[in-house]
Design brief:
Structural class: alpha+beta
Oligomer: single chain
Distance between the termini: 25 Å
Strand order of the largest sheet: 2-1-5-6-7-4-3
Order of helices and strands: EEEEHEEEEHEH
Number of helices: 3
Number of strands: 9
Shape: elongated
Length: 182
C-alpha cells in the first residue's frame, strides 16, 4: 500500500551513533505518539512518546544517541536525541535533525569565497565542520542544487560556529532544508 497518504506502520529506533548499534527498537504497540516537522532554513524537530523498559530508558542519552522514525519501512525522520523525559505513561524523546549540530561545530578551516554559489559554500562548510564526526549521516546524504545566490565572504577558524556561517548565507538569500534528517 505504498504511495497512499496515512498508510503504513510506524517504528521508532534509537541507536548509539558512535558504536553503530541499536539501543532500542519499538515493538508493535510500543509507540504512543510521533510528531515531526520541517521548516525551510531551520532545524527540524521530532518528538515521540513510547513505552520503553526502565533498564533501557536509563541508557538513552542526549547527544549520544540518534532517533529514527520509520513509516512503512522508509526513514521519514532521523536525527540526534536532544532531550529524554520520563512520564507516567512511558518516555518522551525529543530530537533534532543533523543540522542541530551546526551550533556545536566550529569552522575548522580558513575559507575565502569570491562570487561562489551559496549552495557550494554551504556544502563545503558543512563537510569541513561535520564530516569527521557526522552522527546523523548528514554529510553523506547532501543533495544540492544551484541557488543562483552569489557569495563573496571569508570565515576564519575558531572565530565562529557553523550555524553563524549558515545564518549569514540565509541572510544573503540561501534556502535550505534537511530531508528525512539526512
Amino acid at each position: 500500500m505504498l504511495g497512499r497518504l496515512g498508510v503504513g506502520d510506524y517504528a521508532i529506533v534509537v541507536t548509539d551513533w558512535a558504536a553503530g548499534r541499536i539501543v532500542w527498537q519499538s515493538p508493535d504497540r510500543g509507540l504512543r505518539k510521533a510528531d515531526w516537522g520541517r521548516e525551510t532554513s531551520e532545524v527540524s524537530k521530532a518528538t515521540v512518546q513510547v513505552h520503553v523498559p526502565l533498564h533501557i530508558a536509563d541508557r538513552i542519552e542526549p547527544w549520544m544517541h540518534c532517533l529514527t522514525i520509520y513509516r512503512a519501512g522508509e526513514v521519514v525522520w532521523h536525527g540526534v536525541v536532544l532531550q529524554v523525559t520520563a512520564t507516567a505513561s512511558g518516555m518522551a524523546i525529543v530530537g533534532w535533525d543533523g543540522s542541530g549540530f551546526f551550533s556545536r561545530r566550529r569552522v575548522p578551516l580558513a575559507r575565502s569565497w569570491a562570487q561562489h554559489d551559496a549552495t557550494q559554500v554551504m556544502r563545503t562548510m558543512v563537510e569541513d565542520a561535520c564530516g569527521f564526526a557526522d552522527a546523523t549521516g548528514l554529510v553523506e546524504g547532501v543533495v544540492t542544487r544551484e541557488s543562483r545566490v552569489w557569495v563573496t565572504a571569508a570565515w576564519t577558524p575558531s572565530e565562529c560556529m557553523l550555524d553563524d556561517v549558515v545564518d549569514d548565507l540565509v541572510k544573503m538569500g540561501l534556502v535550505w532544508t534537511v530531508a528525512a534528517g539526512r
